[in-house]
Design a protein that fits this description.
Order of helices and strands: EHEHHHHEHEHEHEEHEHEH
Strand content: 5-15%
CATH class: Alpha Beta
Amino acid sequence: MLVISLDFELLWGVFDKVDYHKMQGYFYITRRLIPELLKLFSQYEVHVTWATVGMLFNDSWERWQDNIPQIIPDYKRRELSAYHYGHAISSPTTRDLCLAQDLVRAIADTPHQEVGTHTYSHYYCLEPGQTIEAFEQDLIKCVELAGEMGIQLKSLVFPRNQFNSSYLEVCHKLGIENVRSNPDVWYWNRPQRNAIQDKIFRTGDAYLGFNDKSYPITDLEWKVAQPLAQKASRLLRPHSGKALLDRMKINRIKSEMTTAARRQEIYHLWWHPHNFAHHPEQNLMELQEILSHFKKCQERYGFQSKNMAEVNSMVTV
């Protein structure tokens, strides 16, 4: 089956890396892309998990202020704190960069789309200074706000892929049934390092493919009092404008998808919606080509589309 999970963040995912004054247009384009993505997923009957930063559930900066948890992460690197950042930039001009309750509702109202969580504050689970108590408070706030919108959170993606197995019991206790785990290769083992060697191999893998990316459903091992860890296969990198590399990337994904369909295995594709904001038309065209190939695999091999919650229901029955 094809599994797609999206890390839906807006500015909360990159605030420590960019100057938002220069990125306002980028995130306005991202907001306009969400309905386009939902339209494509509906057209091709593709089921998707949207791992959503919980702060996006707020509809005003006043509401954001009211929803600060009792315990927040005390990162050694203060610049990583969404709370310090939010206090510094909160104003009417930044509202649409950081708050998106309307888009969350649109996702929840679209058939086969699962609203999952990307933690409340884009929480970094492997950074020095944060604690399991702060993580639990962060996740409690996610569950609370989702519940107010009639959404039950079942799936979680750790921000920046900082997968922390020590936190899985907390996830399970708060109703999280699924987490996305990293590819089982050395250059994904420690994403918080951000080492140049790891980046080089991750980038090269997007075009050349260094190992099998799909896996049998029997690899998903259900453990008592823990969410089901669902391994990512491939990051869909955005359109680069370099024709040869872009074609290699799409052909690589289509080939891997065909292999997964023939073997009756899982192929888990992921990306950030804001990745499409540069070259939006080209990115949507590339995605449409991928989804069209999915339909061919579905017709020929019985390939299915499932979101993370639906995969869980197949494993734990």
